[in-house]
Write a structure and sequence with these properties.
- This protein has helices at about 1-25, 30-35, 50-70, 85-90, 105-110, 135, 160-165, 180-190, 210-215, 230-245, 260-265, 275-285, 320-330, 330-340, 360-365, 385-395, 400-415, and strands at about 40-45, 70-75, 100, 140, 145, 145-150, 155-160, 270-275, 290, 300-305, 305-310, 370.
- The longest helix is centred in the first third of the chain and has 22 residues, at about 1-25.
- With about 425 residues, the protein is α/β, with parallel strands linked by helices.
- About 45% of the residues lie in helices and about 10% in strands.
- The protein is built from 17 helices and 12 strands.
- The strands form 4 sheets. It has a 5-stranded mixed sheet. Strands 8-7-9 form a 3-stranded antiparallel sheet.
- It is globular, with a radius of gyration of 23 Å.
Length: about 425
C-alpha cells in the first residue's frame, strides 16, 4: 500500500513540476543572466560530527562565492533522514532550494522525471578534464549532465598484517586477483581465521555489485536491458556462494550488517573499507593494517559513492544556481570541503590535500576504479529484489544460476 501511494505521489509530483515549468515561461531578468544579482537557496546535509568546523567551512566557501558573484546565498543544512520526501515536497510546492546535494541513486530518478536543470550549457569553461572520469558517471543521464561531483569514496580490502603473517604471506604483496585472494582465503580458513566479511543484509553496492563488475558484468543498462544473469553475472553469484559454502565468511553473512567485532578481535584476514574506515582504524589502534588496490578478475573495479550538487528545473535563478555548483566543485572549494569531510576530491588537482596522509593518499589513487552503483531511476528499488535472491542462494535453496535468473526476472518486472 505504501509503495502504491508513493508511486502515485511521484506521478502527481512530476505532473505538477512539468506543468509549472510550462506555465512559468517568464524570461530570466538580465541581472540574473549576468549571475551578478539575486539570491539562491542551497541545501546540504551534515558531513561530519563537528558542526562547528563544518560551519566555518561553509561560511568560507559561501562568502567567497558571494564576493565573486554578487549573489546572496541562503544556506540550510537538512538531515539525511527523509531527505527525499523533504526535497520532493518542497519542489512540488515550488519553494524548494535552488541547489541541493544528491547521491547516485537519486539523480537519475529526478532527471528522468524532468525535475533537474541540465548543466551541460554552463560547462564550457569548467575544465571538465580535471574531474576523475569515474566521478562523472553518476552525474549524467541520457547523455546530459545534471550535476557536478564534490566528493568520492572507494571501497577496497583492508588487511590485518598479523593475520597475513600468520598464514605465511607477505603484507607487501597483497592479492590482486580473485585467484590470489582465494588462495589466501583458503589459508586463512585453515589457520582458523575468516577470510573476509560479507554483509548480506546491507546494500548490493557492498556485496554483489563489486564482484559482478569485476567479472565483467552489469546489472542493467541505461535503457533497461537486464544483464545480471549473463555469464559474468552468474560467475559473481558463484563466487559469493563459494565463499559462503567454504566458510570463508561468517555463518551469519546471509543477513549480517557488519562484522566489526570479528575484525576488531583479529580473527579476520581482510575487510572492505573506505576513507571512513581509516579514521576508525587509526582511532582504535588495535593492530597494523595495510590497504590493497581493488581486486581484479576480468576488470579491476570496486564500488565508491559520489556526492554531487544539482539544481531543480524550477529554480528562479538558474544561472546563479549553475555557477554556484561550478564554484562549489572547483579545486579550491573541493580542497576546503574535503579537508573537513575527509572524503576524496573529485578533481585531480585537489587530491594534494592528502599528500601527507598515507592511507587517504593511497585510496585517492584508486578512485579511477570506483563505480557509483547502478545509474538508473530504479537503481534503488531493484536492490531488495536482488538481495532476496542472493540470500536464497546462500541458504542453499537455489543454485547461483537459478538465483541470477530469478533476480533478472524480478528486475524486468520492475523496469520494463
Amino acid at each position: 500500500m505504501l509503495k502504491k501511494y508513493w508511486s502515485l505521489f511521484m506521478l502527481f509530483l512530476c505532473a505538477v513540476l512539468l506543468v509549472g515549468c510550462q506555465e512559468d515561461m517568464t524570461p530570466v531578468s538580465s541581472d540574473k543572466k549576468d549571475g551578478n544579482k539575486g539570491e539562491i537557496t542551497v541545501w546540504a546535509h551534515p558531513f561530519t560530527g563537528d558542526q562547528e568546523i563544518e560551519g566555518v567551512m561553509w561560511k568560507e566557501i559561501i562568502s567567497s562565492y558571494e564576493k565573486e558573484s554578487g549573489v546572496k546565498v541562503n544556506f540550510e543544512q537538512i538531515p539525511w533522514a527523509n531527505r527525499d520526501q523533504k526535497v520532493l515536497t518542497a519542489l512540488a510546492a515550488n519553494n524548494g532550494p535552488d541547489v541541493f546535494y544528491v547521491i547516485p541513486d537519486q539523480m537519475p530518478q529526478y532527471a528522468d522525471a524532468g525535475m533537474l536543470l541540465e548543466l551541460t550549457p554552463y560547462l564550457e569553461d569548467n575544465d571538465m578534464d580535471d574531474f576523475v572520469e569515474s566521478a562523472l558517471l553518476s552525474t549524467t543521464w541520457k547523455d546530459k549532465v545534471y550535476g557536478l561531483p564534490v566528493l568520492q569514496s572507494v571501497d577496497t580490502l583492508f588487511y590485518n598484517v598479523d593475520v597475513v603473517k600468520a598464514i605465511g604471506e607477505d603484507p607487501t604483496k597483497l592479492p590482486a586477483t580473485w585467484d590470489e585472494f582465494e588462495e589466501w582465503a583458503a589459508k586463512a580458513k585453515a589457520k582458523g581465521f575468516y577470510a573476509t566479511s560479507f554483509q548480506g543484509g546491507g546494500s548490493m553496492n557492498g556485496t554483489l555489485y563489486p564482484f559482478l563488475w569485476q567479472a565483467g558484468g552489469e546489472v542493467l543498462t541505461e535503457d533497461g536491458e537486464v544483464l545480471i544473469n549473463n555469464e559474468a553475472g552468474v560467475e559473481a553469484f558463484e563466487f559469493i556462494n563459494n565463499m559462503y559454502k567454504k566458510g570463508w565468511v561468517p555463518k551469519d553473512s546471509i543477513t549480517a550488517m557488519h562484522h566489526d567485532e570479528i575484525w576488531d578481535s583479529g580473527k579476520m584476514l581482510a575487510v572492505t573499507g573506505s576513507g571512513i574506515s581509516v579514521s576508525g582504524m587509526l582511532n582504535k589502534d588495535i593492530f597494523e593494517f595495510v590497504i590493497a588496490p581493488p581486486l581484479k578478475n576480468k576488470e579491476q573495479i570496486s564500488y565508491g559513492t559520489t556526492g554531487m550538487f544539482v539544481a531543480p528545473i524550477n529554480t528562479d535563478n538558474p544561472d546563479a544556481s549553475a555557477e554556484f555548483i561550478k564554484f562549489m566543485t572547483n579545486t579550491e572549494s573541493q580542497r576546503k570541503f574535503n579537508t573537513v569531510t575527509q572524503y576524496i576530491p573529485t578533481r585531480e588537482s585537489a587530491k594534494d590535500i592528502f599528500d601527507d596522509q598515507k592511507y587517504l593518499a593511497q585510496l585517492a589513487s584508486y578512485t579511477q576504479y570506483a563505480l557509483p552503483g547502478v545509474i538508473h531511476p530504479e537503481g534503488r528499488t531493484i536492490m531488495p529484489l536482488i538481495q532476496a535472491e542472493l540470500q536464497t542462494m546462500m541458504e542453499g535453496k537455489k543454485t547461483p544460476k537459478e538465483a541470477a535468473d530469478a533476480a533478472a526476472e524480478a528486475i524486468k518486472a520492475k523496469v520494463q
